[in-house]
Amino acid sequence: MDSSQKTTSHNFLYIFWIILGFTFLGAGYLIWSQYQQIVFLHNQLILEQASTTEAILQLTTDKDVLTEKLNQTETILTETVDRLNAERDRNDDFEDQISQLAGTVGILDKVAKTDPELLQKYSKVYFLNENYIPANIKKISDKYILSNKGDQYFQGNALTFLTRMIDSAAKAGVDLKIISAYRSFETQSDLKGQYSQVYGTGANTFSADQGYSEHQLGTAVDLTDPTVAGTFLTFKDTEAYAWLQKNAYKYGFGLSYPEDNTFYIFEPWHWRFVGVDLATDLHRANASFYSWDQRKIDGYLVSLFD
Ligand SMILES: [Zn+2]
């Protein structure tokens, strides 16, 4: 190879290096610019992510706010419904109270019109005032009265119960007769006088003291049958007495002084009207009027003539 050929080959090499150099430079630039692009996109992505997270957070907050508002609305609604129901209940209560009040007024009126003496227990210590006269007294039809006993009177409202009882007994073949019913204080005093004459001081133990108040009330009656025809202890052995023991309560009557009572001597003939309610309850409890507490008895005043 000659020198000119050597120069040409050097030139080529030189050019080659230059081209190679530029190529590297170009490639380097490309890589750098790609890298820049990647960095840019990466940053962009981070930004996007951040804004998305923020958006999600915002949505979550919005959801929470909405949920809370919904809950609040629900609470308000529930409270309103509760208040409405409470109001309705109060109205119902008020209506109940009014009707109860009306009922109470009715009961009070009934009690006020019923003489409390009619269910009063009397004793030798506590007896009816001598001036007491029953407000409503009616004559008993003669057919119910034992012959020669004269006119007899009974408390007007209780009279129908008495006559129904005697009629009912008659239907069952039992002949009940009235010996004595309403007795005024004066009549009673006279009677006590008679008894005293016959029985001496022992008269105080029956007829006059305890029983008189009930007769003065107009709701007590002495009953007999024609075989005994008087206020005698033998009346307890009659069919009439057995019928009364079994049925008198249905007409509101009860034996004031039953056998073996601790309040007064046994008077099988002496029956007092105490109302069907009380007489029935006493009969069921196998108790007598005088064995029950006065306050308990007073509770029956309202239904005395039912
Ligand atoms: Zn009597």
Automatic annotation (TrEMBL):
The keyword Transmembrane applies. Coiled coil: none annotated. Residues 154-275 form the D-alanyl-D-alanine carboxypeptidase-like core domain. Pfam families: VanY. It comes from the Bacteria. The keyword Transit peptide does not apply. InterPro entries: DD-CPase-like (IPR052179), VanY-like_core_dom (IPR003709), VanY/YodJ_core_dom (IPR058193), Zn_M74/Hedgehog-like (IPR009045). GO terms for biological process: proteolysis. Gene3D superfamilies: 3.30.1380.10. The chain crosses the membrane at residues 12-32. Keywords: Membrane, Transmembrane, Transmembrane helix. GO terms for molecular function: peptidase activity. PANTHER family: D-ALANYL-D-ALANINE CARBOXYPEPTIDASE, PEPTIDOGLYCAN L-ALANYL-D-GLUTAMATE ENDOPEPTIDASE CWLK. This is D-alanyl-D-alanine carboxypeptidase-like core domain-containing protein.
